[in-house]
Amino acid sequence: METTLRGVGVSHGVAIGEVRHMGTAVLEPPAKQIPAEEAEREQQRARQAVDAVAADLTARGNLAGGEAQAVLEAQALMAQDPELMADVDRRVAVGSSAERAVYDAFAAYRELLANAGEYLAGRVADLDDVRNRIVARLLGVPMPGVPDSDEPYVLVARDLAPADTALLDPTLVLGFVTEEGGPTSHSAILARALGVPAVVALPGAGEIAEGTLIAVDGSSGEVFVNPTEERRAALEAAAAERKAALAAATGPGATADGHKVPLLANIGGPADVAAAIEAGAEGVGLFRTEFLFLDDSKNAPSEEKQVEAYRQVLEAFPEGRVVVRVLDAGADKPLDFLTPGDEPNPALGVRGLRTLLDHPEVLRTQLTALAKAAEGLPVHLEVMAPMVADRADAKAFADACREAGLRAKYGAMVEIPSAALRARSVLREVEFLSLGTNDLAQYTFAADRQVGAVSRLQDPWQPALLDLVALSAEAARAEGKSCGVCGEAASDPLLACVLTGLGVTSLSMGAASIPYVRASLAKFTLAQCERAAAAARAADSADEARNAAQAVLSGE
Ligand code: PEP
Ligand code: MG
User: Fold this and answer.
1) Is the CB of 460 under 6 A from ligand 1?
2) Per-residue pLDDT of the chain (556 residues; tens, 9 = 90+)
3) Closest CA to ligand 1's atom 10
4) 266: Cβ below 6 Å to ligand 1?
5) For residues 494, 499, 502 and 505, what is the CA-based torsion angle, rounded to 10 degrees?
6) Of these residues, 12, 401, 483, 486, which one is catalytic?
7) Is the CB of residue 286 below 6 angstroms from any atom belonging to ligand 1?
8) Which residues form the Phosphotransferase system enzyme I N-terminal domain (predicted)?
């Protein structure tokens, strides 16, 4: 019998196939004593396994490139942490087998992390993944992770470790479903980069039996278990219709009556440029430069290294707009040499622009590198700061840009409600706004973007979030300046129409979403988008807002 489960759709498209669960079994090796004369050999075995796992993670990173690479390299470093290794040696010296020593040493470290504040607690899943890989290797059993299968399947997991998302083979993995994770978690962002339909935060996903046929609608967030023939036919027809609409819509982003809404790409570095161009991006709306800084958590990249990376991106869009965000370190993206390690609540602490104002030399190097990279190119360079709270923040950033002699437009990201509420005041100092709806939702609803349990509040259809978008867009219009959206909200084709109706002037998203948003915008006039926006804002919940906008746009 067909049953319907509802989660959060984070990557468009329909996938119909059999369930394969991720191998997540925690392998607990037996606690047997080894004779003292075997200790040295066991220590060596442990070290070899650790090195092999670290090398494998690094190799997966090299293969994946882009944002995934930084995450995998961080895991490789975790595996080789000298203190952890010393603990493993100590445990073997008093009689543990290599696998048991690794298991226990990681357990002790895990406890430390879990109690060490929000960000580090969030790394526990990564640490468990590393431990499982090392223990599996020592025991000579298959690695936990993506199942071996020659047939295409729908992958179901509690959550996906970065090591797995990075290497999912889109020809075998039809789509994926996870029990945890929010719509703006970094694993959801990776799923979109991969271009496979995905639903996250789906309660009960783990209980769907292996081999069950399911249909995943990555747009609506619905998962149909044992779908009927009619359901499958309807979903396939809708997917085919969407594909045809995608193929028909080409060119710059615009509504049916020609109101232009540039469609830009979110990128993490030069590796993401090809996909952006392929999707017809009209430029880059968010270049997340922090990925350049993750290679080495102890030092900032040199000015030369930065110039090279920026230049590669700028050259790819000779006539287009490229919006570069200066380093957004802290909270979910800490850097050892910049982020204080003792903050009780890092998301509310020194992060984003606050970090850069505490370390002006890092900001100066980045702005100088950008100025050099843009020299002699006809590109429209724009530079923006993350986590701007008020006019003083905006002024400090604009002053730093001027001092670095940067010939670019200076902008502020609106990610904190105060910046939206006082957008006109912020706009006295900068030339454009860009709404980071992921953080704006996090701070408006006091809902951590990493936590699946509060994903209801991370839903960008929440009318309170739409009100803040409207306030910012109205302020920009009054000042004759632009106000784009670069948070994940821009990648929802229906919401993109509502954002346009609210007065947003450009939409920036992962490249895979651009064709969907382009096709959706092309179906409606600006007046229809404005009516849908008014209906959504009049609602009292995210679901009601979505339904109200849908009703207006489908002419119900
Ligand atoms: C946002 O917060 O919406 C945003 C675009 O920035 P990031 O997701 O990198 O924090
Ligand atoms: Mg942000």
Assistant:
1) no
2) 899 999 988 888 899 999 988 876 666 888 878 898 999 999 999 999 999 999 988 887 887 777 678 778 888 888 888 989 999 999 999 999 999 999 999 988 888 777 766 556 667 778 888 898 899 888 877 677 777 677 899 999 887 766 666 667 767 889 989 888 776 665 576 677 677 889 988 988 988 988 999 999 988 899 999 999 999 999 988 888 877 777 777 899 999 999 999 999 999 999 899 999 989 999 999 999 988 887 776 788 999 999 999 999 999 998 889 999 999 998 877 888 888 888 889 999 999 999 999 999 999 999 999 999 999 988 889 999 999 999 999 999 999 999 999 999 999 999 999 999 999 999 999 999 999 999 999 999 999 887 878 888 989 999 999 999 999 999 999 999 999 999 989 999 999 999 999 999 999 999 988 998 999 999 999 999 999 999 999 999 999 999 999 999 988 6
3) 439
4) no
5) -140
6) 486
7) yes
8) 6-123
Structure tokens at 239: 């997917």
How do strand 8-11 and strand 173-178 relate by DSSP bridges? Answer: unpaired
Question: Among residues 513, 519, 463, which one has the least CA distance to residue 492?
Answer: 513
Helix (H) / strand (E) element for 382: namely strand 380-385
- What's the gap in Å between 441 CA and the centre of ligand 1? 10
DSSP 8-state symbol, 110: H
CB contact at 8 A, 74 and 126: yes
Active site residue 380: no
In angstroms, the CA 68 to CA 309 distance is 17
Q: Give the tokens for residue 544.
A: 């009601």
Question: Is ligand 1 within 6 A of the CB of residue 381?
Answer: no
Q: Is the CB of 436 under 6 A from ligand 1?
A: yes
Task: Report the run of H or E that residue 401 belongs to, with start and end.
Answer: helix 391-403
Q: Which two tokens stand for residue 242?
A: 């969407």
Secondary structure of 191-231 in HEC code, one letter for each residue: HHHHCCCEEECCCCHHHCCCCCEEEEECCCCEEEECCCHHH
Structural domains of the chain, ranges and CATH numbers in brackets: 3-23+145-230 (3.50.30.10), 36-139 (1.10.274.10), 244-554 (3.20.20.60)
Three-state DSSP class for 426?
Answer: helix
Name residue 33's beta-bridge partners. Answer: 96
Ligand 1 pocket residue status of 439, Cβ below 6 Å: yes
Which of 355, 415, 492 maximizes ligand 1 atoms within 8 Å of its Cβ, making it the mutation to test the pocket? 415
151 three-state secondary structure = coil
Strand order in the sheet with 8-11: 3-6, 222-225, 213-217, 14-21, 153-157, 173-178, 198-200, 8-11
**Which residues, 6+ apart, have CB-to-CB distance to 275 below 8 Å?**
193, 265, 511, 512
Question: For residue 436, which atom of ligand 1 is closest to its CA?
Answer: 3
Looking from the CA of residue 442, the nearest atom of ligand 1 is 2
Residue 539 CB coordination number (10 Å): 18
